[in-house]
Design goal:
EC 2.4.99.28, cell division, 3-stranded antiparallel beta sheet, transmembrane helix, FtsW/RodA, two-stranded antiparallel ribbon, mainly alpha, peptidoglycan synthesis, 5% strand, globular
Length: 517
């Protein structure tokens, strides 16, 4: 960049700030480069273009998928031989589904996640259609008294697994779109609850109570993370818990599961047989386990050892130390998921990452709780580990979407703590116009606007126009333009650093000038 005397000030544009600086000679040019380098340093911190995905998350997902295929081979080998199949029959089928899931994982990684914002409603409608279609005789595949699958005996699609992802996509979209009226329960909470209960009831009617619980709890986590009022959410959870207990007693097999949970050893030969055998396998594993393919429970003692109770077989073969390692891998996945949510560049990406990570947490918690006698048996598989083509493919697809969010994360954590913060744009503009008169050299580096937290809105009575006017500094019935997420917070945080760097550069330049004099 060349500078000559008499030329107008150069204009250098960075992502959201334009710095106007002038220079008259080469000495001023050197000083200008010093200032621009400092501005570039903090301007790069709010980079929002796509970058490399989270490779730690990718390695974690691949490790869990590989462990799942190997454990399924070990747990189903004896059963395959007993049924006259090849020893790796179920493992090969799981591997084929994992390969399809990895293709979806790779494709979703490089699809911008805002694609799902535009098509969230369509995904929801498609999910509802599939849930209705599975109940149509002749289309839905019925097995063990439940109609949960679509397809032939060799290829099954479980729509309830897709419904879990669909509800996360739609609620992340809805709770982003409804942010300006998030404190209004009729306009934000009510539509979200209607959609959540609709999908929950459709899944529950298959019947599939375990997946219905996963879907509802994942939606509840998103509703809480979005910043909605606590009181309506608590009431919703209380009512839903009562309905869940009532639904558990509506079918004899569900009530028998509750009986087996409370008194497993009294029903060790009937409803509590699977739980007792699972606990026996966990106890036999000890610290180091029996070794690969050396499980006794998988030889016929533990029913369906390669599906819901595969964790018991894993413990028997690899011991409690192996359990610690497996749980550590899940912990890394959860850490990276919430890390991505914390650094996401906008509200939709944050909610999407929270919802997708929560589905994995909830499924793993319910499965491990059932196997270890902490929760009733519900039939929820262990993510990436249990046998199930649809389950592993959908989990890999969800991980791919999470990877897509990780490609657009910021480089610094927003200074404002939660994604539920609302920033008044009117107040931001007012302070910006006021700062323009006082900061001549940095006209676009304004003072940050005051943040109104949604936590201060929770519990507030509706209709209090004066309180709302005090919160946002605007007339009670005027339009209140609110920013959508963290980008404004990141910009304000960078503004603070930019002002500080500008002052430091100016002071250092003054010192150099005084030294030359």
């Amino acid at each position: 960049m060349a500078c000559t005397g008499g030329n107008p000030p150069d204009e250098v544009s960075f992502s959201f700030v334009i710095v106007h600086l002038g220079c008259r000679d080469m000495k001023a040019h050197v000083e200008l480069k010093d200032e621009l380098s400092s501005v570039t340093e903090w301007g790069a911190n709010v980079r929002t273009e796509r970058h490399q995905p989270d490779y730690i998350l990718m390695i974690t997902v691949l490790m869990l998928t590989g462990i799942g295929v190997v454990t399924i081979y070990s747990a189903s080998m004896v059963y395959d031989l007993h049924m006259g199949l090849s020893p790796g029959h179920f493992a090969v089928r799981q591997l084929a589904a994992a390969i399809l899931g990895l293709v979806a994982f790779a494709v979703c990684t490089y699809i911008p996640y805002h694609f799902w914002y535009r098509h969230a409603a369509k995904c929801l409608l498609a999910s509802v259609a599939l849930l209705l279609l599975v109940m149509v005789p002749g289309i839905g595949h019925r097995s063990l008294g439940a109609s949960r699958w679509i397809g032939t005996s060799s290829f099954h699609l479980q729509p309830s697994e897709l419904a879990v992802i669909a509800i996360v996509l739609y609620l992340a979209f809805l709770l982003t779109k409804k942010l300006p009226v998030l404190h209004d329960s009729k306009r934000a909470l009510r539509p979200a609850l209607v959609i959540t209960y609709l999908l929950t009831i459709l899944v529950f009617a298959e019947p599939d109570m375990g997946t219905a619980m996963t879907l509802f709890l994942s939606a509840t986590v998103l509703l809480f993370a979005s910043g909605l009022r606590i009181k309506p959410l608590v009431l919703t959870l209380a009512v839903s818990f009562g309905l869940g207990v009532l639904g558990a007693h509506m079918a004899s097999y569900r009530s028998s599961r509750l009986t087996a949970f409370f008194h497993p050893f009294q029903h060790a030969q009937t409803s509590g047989y699977q739980l007792v055998q699972g606990l026996t396998a966990i106890a036999n594993g000890g610290w180091t386990g029996r070794g690969f393919a050396a499980s006794i429970s998988s030889t016929g003692y533990l029913p369906e050892s390669y599906t819901d109770f595969i964790f018991a077989v894993f413990t028997e073969e690899w011991g409690w130390l192996g359990d610690i390692g497996l749980l550590a891998i899940f912990a890394v996945l959860i850490w990276r998921g919430f890390h991505i949510a914390r650094y996401a560049r906008d509200r939709f990406g944050s909610l999407l990452a929270i919802g997708l990570t929560s589905t994995i947490i909830i499924q793993a918690a319910i499965n491990l709780g059932a196997v270890t006698w902490m929760l009733p048996v519900t039939g929820i598989p262990l993510p990436f580990i249990s046998y199930g083509g649809t389950d592993v493919a959908i989990n890999l697809l969800a991980a791919g979407i999470l990877m897509s969010v990780s490609r657009e994360t910021g480089l610094v954590m927003p200074e404002e703590d939660t994604i539920a913060d609302i920033i008044s744009v009117d107040e931001l503009r007012a302070e910006r116009s006021q700062s323009e008169s006082t900061e001549a050299k940095f006209p676009s580096l304004q003072q940050p606007a005051r943040v109104t937290r949604l936590s201060s809105r929770r519990g507030r009575k509706r209709g209090n126009a004066q309180t709302r006017q005090q919160d946002v500094g605007a007339p009670a019935r005027s339009q209140r333009n609110l920013s959508l997420s963290w980008r404004a917070q990141q910009e304000m945080a960078s503004d603070r650093r930019g002002r500080q760097n500008g002052r430091n550069s100016e002071s250092s330049r003054d010192k150099r000038n005084r030294g030359k004099r």
